[in-house]
Structures are given as structure tokens and as C-alpha cells.
Amino acid sequence: MKHHSIARKLFIITSLIIIGLLSLVLVFESLFFESFYRHVKQHEQETAITKLTGQLEVMQADEQAIAYTIGSAMNEYDASIALLNEDYRIKQLDIYVIHLVSGEQTIKVIINEEGLRYGDLPVELLPGDKLVVDGIFMDQHNAVLHPVHFNPETVEPEIGLVRVQGTITSLLLPEQRSYNPMYQDMLISNVLADWKPWELTDIQSAQSMTMQWRDAWSGVQYIATLAKMSDIDSYVIMLSSLQPVDEAISILRKYVLVLFPFIVLIVIILAVVYSRYIARPLVKINAFAEKLAQLQFSATPPIQSKDEYGQLSQHLVTLSHNLEKALEEVTERNEQLQVEISKKIHLEELRKELVANIAHELKTPLAVLKGYAEGLQDGIASHKQEAYLAHIVRETDVMNELIMDLLELSKYEVNAITLKPAHFHIIRLVQDEVDALAIQLTDKNLHVKIDTTALSNLNVIGDRKRIKQVVVNVLSNAVRHAKAGSTLRITLTTLPLNKVEVRVYNEGDAIPVEHLQLIWEKFYRVEQARDRRSGGTGLGLTIARHILQLHESQFGAKNTEHGVEFYFTLKEGSANHDNEK
């Protein structure tokens, strides 16, 4: 099972949450910031024009105060403002003015969008500063001047212009903003021309109305708000540019694209530090708990802090002490009980199995022995006595072999066998057992062919003693039922999943299909001809089955075209090991 540390999980979760939130903010900024800004801008402009109309209504017909209030509001709200009459025509007000004292005369310098560029206006003027203006007087008393040049560099004014020099007493000038305010002031007439007549009639019942308008020449969008003054039969219109937000959003997106990788890097670094800081105590406690699970008790807490980690650590130590003490008591009592129970169960089961099997399988050999013994007792001919004695010895060997197999089988059936797995040379083991059967092979004129060409590794893992018993039983069975003069084929191959397969083939009569699984049962014989007098006890394959099951082997028997083939698998061992004992 793949290990996933809590530090890694905290790092991934923290990074994903922060980066996800950051990405979400960026997406919302990209999708909704512009509309949000426009909504806020409209609300602020409607609030500002409501406040302005309230101020203007108090001033009644004081045009100078109205003009000053509108001019101050234009600078304050970064907007162009105009006062309209009942026919929605712009009232001419001297909004931007400079009052000069030249000698004994006060001159009013009126600044408007006609004939003057914004860049021509002086900057940072204050009351008390000296100012030189070339312009044209607009009245008979030479008190109102339309400026053309401020602080001219020429010695004499241009033809048709007069030069006025004086001290500023008061002034109101348009402030430099993100657009040309004087150009924007000229756009109010265009806005009123584009406003639908039926839309203007709605202002009679509403406090204010707002629309977005685009300048056809510059392509810049504006927001225009029209409000009606209740006490005066006039209207106020306010026009603000939306160009700053468009530029700001464009720059912000570029800025975010540049900044985002650095933010992600910082988030990852902080997440690594944070996750390790949080997970370090848990890792120590987990290691302590793992030892505790393996019954490795310790009296030293892994965490000495005074927080919840420290408390949990101390509780685990207490649990360790209590569990160790309880386990010692339980283990001691359980060992005593298990020993007693196991002995009784083992002895009882072994007794039952031995009694049943011996009673059944020794009946025939004992009958044979009795018959030969009675013949000797009756005084048979002397030339037959040696043959009778040989039969008695042979039957005694059969009974002895049967008893030994029964004892061995009883151990497997009560799980009294413990395997001792090791790496050993499988081909050498097979060859040794073939050599041990040389007499039986010679008696039946059998030949043995061992094929290992498909085996890449010669070692397997298993209990060598038990596997030897399997090989002996399978080979003995093959020799016993092989056709005289035929060839036994032993094939060793490598299978997927690190398995080695051993196949033993003998030429002879086939086993009926319905008997292929039953041959592994104890005392089972396919036919009468295959009885103990043919050389077997009927327990060899049963013992082999138990051994192979303990090795988690895949085994079986199948009929071929001319004989029978037995097979079983073992785990492939390391080529660097070869334990033959």
C-alpha cells in the first residue's frame, strides 16, 4: 500500500486551497470587476449629483456662487458638470475664472473650452501670485478678459491682443486628470443630443437618471447622470469618464499574469513550511503508535509540548504501560491455556484418525499375515516355508509403510506441521530423487528425460524436506503407473508472477475425468488394480496435497494423448541463495 504522509496531504490541500482562492479572485476580477466598478461609479455619481442639486437649490439666482460650486464639484468628483434650463439647454456660467488686481482695477479672466487648450493653462497658481495674460476684453469696461496666452514669452502682445499684468486675488481652475477636462466639458452638448426625448421626459417623475455614452471620436465611454432641481426650474448634468477603469483593468491583468507565478511560489514555500510544522509532531506520535502496535512499549513520550500533541503523547505512554502490563498477564495465562487445549485436541484428533485409518487399512495385511502364519503352523512343505516367510516380511513392510504414512498425514490434518522455507536448487533435488529410483526404473525398463531449457532461475523457495517428499510421491506414482519401456518426462518452466512449474509425465492408462480430483483424497484408488500390492499405500498424493497447499501452490493432474501428467508450482527463489539443508 502506498504511503501518503500527512505533511504531503497538508501541503497539497493548503496549496490547492490558496491557489484556488487566488485563481477564483482573479477570475472574478477578470469577469466582474469592470461591471462592479461601473455600478459603484454610477451610484457615487448619483449620490454626488443629489448632493450638488441640494447645494445649488439654496443659492437660488446667485450665478457666481453657483458657478463656483459647480467648478469645485467638477474638481472634487473628477467630472464635467453643467446647469441646464427647462429646455435642456446649457446655461453659460463662468466656472473657471481668475481674478486679477491690476493697478486700481479688478479684472476677471474667464477660462473656457473655446480657443484655449488645457496645456496652455498655468499650473500651481495661488492667490497672491503674479500673472501676465494676453487676451481680448469681452466688455466695454475692460473688466472681463478672454485669455489667449498665460505668461507670454514675447516682449509685446500679438496684434489684436492686450496684455494684462496683476496679482491673483482668487481663482478656480480645472485640475489635471486622466483626460482633458476642457475637452470633456465640450462633450455635454453631444450627450444631450444623443439622449432620447422620451428618456428626458422621465426625469420629471424620477429624482435622477443615468446612462452610459460613448464618444464617437475618441471611443472613450462615459457615464452621464441628469437630475432635476425641485425648487428651481433647472437641471444638472454630470459626465464622468470610464477610461481610467479600462486602463486600470488592462494593466491589472498584465500585472497579475506577472505576479501570479511568484505568488504561487510563495504559497508553495509557505505551504511546505506550514505542513511540516503541523505534521512533525504527528509523525513522531505516529512512529510511537506504530511501535506500540508492534508491542514495543516505551516510557518516553515522543512530544514534550504542553499543547494537545503533548497530552496525546502522554496518554499514549500511559496506554503503553497499561497495555504492556495487561498483555503480560494475558499472554502468560493464554500460553498455559493454549498448551493444555492444543495438547488435548491434538491427541484426541490424532487418536481418532489413527484408530480409524489403521483399523481399516491394516485389515487386509493382517489377514494375509494370518494366512501365511497358519500355513507355517500347519506344517507346510519345507520348500514353501521360505516363500511364506518372504511374504510375511513383505506384508510387514507394507504395514510399516502404511503406519508411517498415517502418522505423517495425521500431522498435516491437525496443522501440526511448520514449514521451514529456504532457497534451494530444484533441478538438483529432482535429479537426486530420480537417481534414488534407479532400481524401480530398471525393473520396468523406464527412461527419464529432464527438460530445463525454459527455466531461467534454478532456485525456488520452500521447505526442502517437504518438497522432496512431494517429488518422491509424484515420481513414485508416475513410475508405478508408467507403461514398461516408456520414457518419463520431467519439465521445469518459469511462469509469470515469479512462479516455477514442475511437470511429471508418464505414458500409460488415462485417469477417468471424474476421478482426477478424487485421486488426492486419502485411500482413494481409481480401480482395484491400483492397490497396495502395486506398491502404494494410497496416502502419497494426499500427503503431497497437504504439503503443496501449505506452500500456496497450484497443483493438479490431467490426461494427455498417451498418458497422465502431474504438475505443481513453487515460488521462484533468488539466484544468490542455495540452501540445500
Automatic annotation (TrEMBL):
Entry protein name: histidine kinase
Membrane-protein topology: Multi-pass membrane protein
Catalytic activity as recorded in UniProt: ATP + protein L-histidine = ADP + protein N-phospho-L-histidine
Membrane-spanning segments: 12-33, 255-274
EC number(s) per entry: 2.7.13.3
Subcellular location, record wording: Cell membrane
Entry GO MF terms: kinase activity
InterPro entries reported in the protein's UniProt record: BphY/WalK/GraS-like, HAMP_dom, HATPase_C_sf, HATPase_dom, His_kinase_dom, HisK_dim/P_dom, HisK_dim/P_sf, Sig_transdc_His_kin-like_C
Keywords for this protein: ATP-binding, Cell membrane, Coiled coil, Kinase, Membrane, Nucleotide-binding, Phosphoprotein, Transferase, Transmembrane, Transmembrane helix, Two-component regulatory system
Pfam families listed in its UniProt record: HATPase_c (PF02518), HisKA (PF00512)
Predominant location category: membrane
Top EC class for this record: transferase
Stretches of the chain forming a coiled coil according to its record: 320-347
CDD domains: HAMP, HisKA
All copies of domain Histidine kinase, residue ranges: 357-574
Residue intervals of the HAMP domain: 276-328
